[in-house]
Amino acid sequence: MSQQVNQETSAAGGVNRRSVLAGLAGGVASAGLLAPSAAAGTTGAETAGRPERDQRVEALLGRMTLAEKIGQLQLVGDETTARAALAGGRLGGVFSVVGAAKLNALQRIAVERTRLKIPLVFGLDVIHGYTTNFPIPLAQGASFDPAVAGTDAAVSAKEARSSGIHWTYAPMMDVTHEPRWGRIAEGYGEDPYLATRFAVAKVRGYQGNDYSAPDRVAACAKHFVAYGGAEGGRDYNTVDVSLHRLHNLYLPPFKASVEAGVATVMASFTTISGVPAHGNGYVLHDVLKGAYGFRGFVVSDYTGIEELILHGLAGDGADAAAAALPAGVDMEMVSTNYARFAERLLAERRITRDQLDDAVRRILLVKVRLGLFERPYVDEATEVKAPSPAALAASRQAAARCMVLLKNDGPVLPLAKGIGSVAVVGPLGIATYDLNGTWAGLGTGAGTTPPVTVVDGIRAAAPGAAVTYTPGCTVEGTDTTGFAAAQQAARAADVTVVVVGETAAMSGEAAARSTIDLPGVQQQLVAAVAQTGKPFVVVLVNGRPLTISSVHEHAPAILEAWAPGVQGGHAIADVLFGAVNPGGKLPVSFPRAVGQIPIYYNHENTGRPADPANKYTSKYLDLASGPLYEFGHGLSYTTFRVDGLRLSSTRLPARGGRIDVTATVTNTGARAGDEVVQLYLRDPVASIVQPVRRLRGFQRVTLAAGASTTVSFTLTPDDVGFYDNAARFRVEPGKIEVYVGTSSAATLSASFTVG
Ligand code: NOJ
Question: How far apart are the first and last CA of the chain?
C-alpha cells in the first residue's frame, strides 16, 4: 500500500515526506505487515446505513465546486472569522463559540444562504465536563473504573449537544512517562492498556451507538500521536520514538478508539522521529487511515499546519498545505493554508483531486452521521445552562471514586463524624475553580456556580464540628509568616486537614513544570503543621504526580484528590469521613525526585538492573531506586488479601488460544471497601526486550467486611504479543509470567507457555 501511495505522491510532484518513517520500518505497509484492523469501521452503528450515507456523500460531492470543497476543509475558532468565511461560502466548521442562539445564528447562514446548504459542524474542548465538571481525566484513570469516564462523557455529551455543540475534542489518550508535562492531567497516565480502556469508554460515552442522537456528540481521539513523548516534558517539544514504542506504547488507545468507531482524530503538535505529525504520512495515512481503516476525518491542531513552517518541514504556507493534505490532515484548524493554496497546489499537481475529495468526503460523512442535514439547529428552549442535580451527584460520586489514599498511618483516617473540631489549613482549602483543574468547559465562565470548597464540604459532612480555616501561605508565594497561625489552628483542633497542591493553571496545555514539588512553601507548611505533634492529614489537589517525599515523611495520612471537579469539597469530605471508602489506584508512578524522570513501572530491564549492593548497576548514587509510590498503588480503610491464583491451562496456543486466570480477593478488614485486582504479564525472553511488567487486566470490586469473591481475566495471544521494530505484531513462543495483586508490585505469580 505505501508503495502505491508513494507513486501517487510522486506523480503529483509532491515531496514524498510521508514515507520517511515507513522507510525506517522497512516498508511496513507495503509488505502488508500492518494488516488492516479486522474491527475497524465495522461496529454495528458504523455498518448500519453505510451504503445510503456513502451515496449521499458522493451525490453531494459530485455537485460541489472546487471552492466549495476547499471551504469544507476550513475550521475557525471565532464568530467574526466564521461570518467572514461564510460570506464567501467557504467554511466547514466552527469551534470555541458557545451558546445555542449564537450557534443557530451561524448555522442559519450556512443552511439558508450558501448554495449547497451544507451545515457547519460545531466543536469545543469538552474534556471533563461541559456545564458539570467531572474530575480531570488523570484522576478518572485513578478510579481504575472505565465506567467513570463513560459517565462523564455521557453527561457532557448531553449537556453540550443541548447547546448546539456537535463535536468534542476529547478524549485525549496520550500515554506519557513525563509528569513535568502539564498535559498529563488530560490523559490516563503511563500505561497503554489503562489508557486504552478509558479512551474506549469515553468514546462510547460521547458517541453512544449513534452520534446523531440529541444527547450525543462526535468524539475526537487526540493527539495523533506520541504527543506524550515530548522531550523534557516541555509542551510541543520534539519526540523521537522507535517503531516498537510507537506501536506498543502510544498507538494502542488510538487503534482501539478507531475500532470503537471514533468519528475524528486530531494530529499532534509534535515532530515524530523527524517528521511533524501534521506532515507525517506514515502515522496518518499509512497507519491510521490505511492499517487501522479509519473512515472519519483528521483535524489539525490549532495552527498545526502553519507550524510546519517553523518546524522546518515547509518553506511557506503552500508548502505546508502540500505536506499536510497528502499526509492525511483533512481539516485545518485556525490557519488557512488549505483555503489559500489548495487551488494553486492542484494546478501545480502538488496535491491531487483524489486527495482533496477524500478529505471532503470524510468531513461530509461525519456531518451526515451527526444528522446535521436533517437537524441543523438546536432547540434553544432546552439548552442546558447549569448542572442538574443528577449531574452534580454523578460528578461527586466520580470524584470520590477517583481519590487515592497514598498513606494512612495510625490510622488517622477516616475521621469520626462526631469529631469536635477540624482545622483546615493550606491555600487550597477554600479553592473554588482550581478544583475544576484544566479545561474546565463552561464551568468557570461568568455566572457559573463555583465548585464546592474543601472547607464547605467538611462543614456539611460534620455539621457538629467547629471548623476553622487558616491558609498558612499561598500556592506559589514564598511568605511563611502565616505558618504560626496555621500551627496555632492545628494545636487548637482535634485534627487538621492540610490542603495543598497546584492551581488549575499549573497543568494542562503549555503548563510544563521543571520541578514537580509542591509549589511555593507548601512543603514547609506541611512540616510546620507536623511540628505541632497533632494528628493531621494532607489532601493533595493537583493535575500531575508530585514529588512529595518530604510530605510522605512528615504526614501520617495523604489523600490524593487530584482536581476533583465541581463537587470537589463534598467528594473530599465523603472520603475523609468514610462515607466513601477510597479505592483509587495510581495511574502513574510518583517519583521520589524530579531527577528520576522518566520513571515508569513498565520499563524494560537493563543488563544491570538496580542493585543497592552493586555500584555498577542502573541507579542514582544519591537516591533510592524505584518510585515513592508505584503504579497501581492505593490504600483503603479496610484490608484485602489476594490469593488462590489459578490458570485454566499452562499452554496458550499462539493462534486462537485462551487462558482464564482466576484469583480470590477477600476483604480481611472490618468495613466494606473497594479493591482493584490487577493482572500484569512479563515476557522474560523475546526478540524485542519486553517491559518488566505490563498491565493486561484489572477489576475493581466492592466487598463487605469478611466477604470474598473470585475475579477472572481472559488472556489471548493479543495479550502476550507485541509490535517489533518493523511494526509487525509478533506472538513469540516461550514462557510468560503472570502477576496478580493490588499494585504493579504484585508478588503472587504463575506462568504459562505460548506455542
Ligand atoms: C490546542 C490543543 O492542543 C488541543 O488539544 C485543543 O483541542 C485545541 N487547541 C483546540 O482548543
Answer: 31
Q: Cβ-count burial of 704 within 10 angstroms (0-12 exposed, 13-18 middle, 19+ buried)?
A: exposed
Give residue 43 CA to ligand 1 midpoint distance, Å. 28
**Is the pLDDT assigned to residue 17 strictly greater than 60?**
no
Please state the rounded mean pLDDT for residues 206-221: 98
Among 330, 349, 375, which residue terminates a domain? 375
C-beta of residue 312 within 8 angstroms of C-beta of residue 318: no
Atom 7 of ligand 1: nearest residue by CA position: 169
In the residue annotation, 301 being an active-site residue is answered as: yes
Please choose, from the candidates 589, 157, 566, the residue with its C-alpha nearest in 3D space to the C-alpha of residue 395: 566
Residue 663, in any domain of the structure: yes
pLDDT of residue 44: 60
In terms of domains, do 707 and 673 share one?
yes
C-alpha cell at position 329? 490532515
Alpha-carbon gap, residue 665 to 680, rounded angstroms: 16
Closest CA to 95 of 67, 120, 130, 69: 120
Residue 80 has pLDDT above 70, yes or no: yes
Which residue in this structure is represented by grid cell 484548524?
A: 333
Is 475 inside any structural domain?
Answer: yes
Residue pair 631/190 in contact (Cβ under 8 Å)? The answer is yes
Let me know whether 325 and 403 are in one domain.
no
Asked whether residue 429 falls in the same domain as residue 525, the answer is yes
- What's the confidence (pLDDT) of residue 602? 98
In SS3 terms, 648-678 reads as: CCCEECCCCCCEEEEEEEEECCCCCEEEEEE
CATH number at residue 329: 3.20.20.300
Going by pLDDT thresholds of 50, 70 and 90, the confidence category of residue 43 is low
Same domain, 582 and 649: no
For residue 527, give Cα distances in angstroms to 245, 422, 499, 551.
Answer: 41, 18, 13, 7
Q: Of the residues 217, 302, 335, 507, which should be mutated to test ligand 1's pocket, given the most ligand atoms within 8 Å of the CB?
A: 302
With respect to residue 577, please indicate whether it lies within any of the assigned structural domains: yes
**What separation in angstroms does the CA of 553 have from each of 407, 495, 527, 530, 619?**
10, 18, 9, 10, 22
Structural domain boundaries, residue 518: 392-591
Confidence of residue 444 (pLDDT cuts 50, 70, 90): confident
* Residue 587 CB partners (closer than 8 Å, separation 6+): 138, 141, 142, 144, 188, 189, 190, 191, 194, 631
Q: Are residues 369 and 431 in the same domain?
A: no
CB 456 within 8 A of CB 483: no
Per-residue pLDDT reduced to its tens digit, 184-204: 999 999 999 999 999 999 999
Q: What SS3 class is residue 67?
A: helix
Compute, in angstroms, the gap from residue 301 CA to the centroid of ligand 1. 6
Residue 256 lies in a domain: yes
Same domain? For 370 and 401 the reply is: no
